[in-house]
Amino acid sequence: MNNKDNKESEERAARSVHGLPYERFLRFGPENLTEAELLAIIIRTGTRSKSALVLAEEVLSLARYPKGGLLGLYDVTLQQLQNIRGIGEVKAVKLKCLAELSMRMSMARALEGISFNSSGQVAAYFMEKLRHRETECVILVCMDAKGQMVGEKKLSEGSVNMSLISPREIFLAALESRAVNILLAHNHPSGDPTPSASDKALTWNVKNAGEQMGIPLLDHIVIGDNRYVSFKEAAWFYES
User: Fold this and answer.
1) What residues contact 13, with CB distance under 8 A and at least 6 apart?
2) Nearest Cα to 172, choosing from 199, 210, 201, 145?
3) How many Å apart are CA 229 and CA 115, to the nearest integer?
4) pLDDT (tens digit, 9 = 90+) per residue, 130-146?
5) CA distance 121 to 52
6) Is the Cβ–Cβ distance between 70 and 102 less than 8 Å?
7) 97-104: long-range contacts at Cβ-Cβ below 8 A with a sequence spacing of 24 or more?
8) Which has more confidence, 3 or 201?
9) What is the pTM assigned to this prediction?
């Protein structure tokens, strides 16, 4: 059997394994497949008792309200995926990579034409990146004179005490990126973006230090679940 015959044999085997979702993809395109059917093609093989489509449906069932469907896949852990009979480590890793790629594609689209002078656009950019996290993540965005991002640095992640984040660390990173302006963004895993007392204290400290150094803090965005608070838009930015 030559290489061409081997390839055709493999393709026929793949069609047999994938079954209906694979055939539907070839006939109608991915836009006409359900989320379960798309996942079934990624999963590729099932078990003797369960098809890849059944496995895909079980994967989607792990998603919890309010992040159902494919969106909820981002929050499902490797262990939870592997608890499904027929989903081993390799398939679980592929599914998590799929969720990560989806998020990055969403962020890449959001970054196109974004104005970092617009609190709403900044919040939209960080929303998908931060709102899924179960722990707090604090990010510094460095910008040039035209308001374009020249650097993005994770300052802290985990159980964050905002009062312990040093303005010195922030401005060392800003100087390294040759930033003209900066902004901060972080999430509240509770889903409530209302700034805490330590959020406000850090903002005021960084804002005052930035004015002295000539690298202004333009905003501090707090991300909740589909909600955000902008210090620039609210009175908190100007309190002291």
Assistant:
1) none
2) 210
3) 17
4) 877 888 999 999 998 88
5) 39
6) yes
7) 98/39, 98/42, 98/73, 99/70, 99/73, 99/74, 100/74, 102/70, 102/74, 103/74, 103/128, 103/129, 103/132
8) 201
9) 0.62
